[in-house]
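Lab notebook, design round three. We kept the backbone fixed and only want residue identities now. Task for the bench partner: fill in a sequence for the structure below.
Input structure tokens:
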């Protein structure tokens, strides 16, 4: 089984260059340099006008500022050059992931679950998007974040390679009368189970995903019940939503 869209293609995704960090580093160097030059000239002026005491005080002030700026510049430089570098190469049948000194070669059919999460944090008035995808197999798990360039495209390509295998396993289980499990959420042909409460498909109402939360309404004789689950806890979320939609329509 292959994803026909990627049979003749190899896609590679790498860590985005942190241009904002390098810009801050350059600005830090300029600011430290200007501080040193201005401090030197101001100290000479103070020495000529007010004597040694004032000049010494002025020199001490500028030295402290220069040292603080230098520490910040050096620390930022170390962060930038040691920042974790990731390379993800997606082949038709496997995914090659390189993180610093670690390398994973994962067959598409060996991946059992894919978890996704996305959050937005704020840096002042600027929204910062943070996405994460976790690939889980019997050998362990690998995490990839939105620090990778073209993150959304990478996620779509991974899903396109992996989900056909997972869906085939799910369908075999359903066809033989078994249930499929999504970390506490269980689906079979008869209905849906969550926290040991079974609901028939005719009881399942609206389902929506917003701000990282899945809301699912279940209708009972006693009234509606709202289930809320963080999407980062639901493996293979697109497949879960697909089965939910398919069975509620039948």
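Proposed sequence:
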């Amino acid at each position: 089984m292959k994803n026909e869209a990627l049979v003749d293609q190899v896609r590679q995704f790498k860590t985005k260059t942190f241009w904002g960090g390098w810009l801050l580093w350059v600005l830090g160097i300029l600011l430290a340099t200007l501080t040193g030059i201005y401090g030197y000239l101001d100290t000479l002026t103070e020495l000529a006008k007010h004597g040694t005491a004032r000049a010494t005080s002025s020199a001490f002030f500028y030295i402290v500022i220069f040292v603080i700026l230098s520490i910040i510049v050096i620390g930022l430089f170390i962060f930038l050059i040691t920042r974790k570098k990731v390379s993800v190469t997606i082949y038709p049948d496997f995914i090659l992931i390189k993180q610093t000194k670690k390398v994973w070669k994962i067959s598409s059919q060996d991946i059992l679950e894919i978890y996704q999460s996305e959050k937005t944090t704020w840096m002042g008035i600027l929204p910062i998007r943070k996405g994460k995808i976790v690939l889980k197999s019997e050998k362990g798990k690998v995490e990839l974040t939105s620090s990778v360039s073209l993150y959304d495209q990478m996620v779509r390509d991974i899903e396109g390679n992996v989900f056909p295998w997972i869906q085939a396993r799910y369908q075999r289980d359903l066809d033989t009368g078994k249930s499929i499990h999504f970390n506490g959420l269980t689906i079979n042909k008869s209905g849906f189970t969550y926290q040991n409460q079974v609901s028939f498909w005719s009881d399942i109402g609206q389902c929506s995903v917003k701000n990282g939360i899945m809301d699912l309404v279940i209708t009972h004789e006693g009234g509606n019940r709202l289930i809320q689950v963080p999407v980062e806890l639901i493996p293979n979320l697109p497949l879960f939503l697909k089965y939910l939609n398919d069975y509620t329509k039948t």
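Keep this in mind before ordering anything: Residues 87 and 98 are 5 Å apart (CA to CA).
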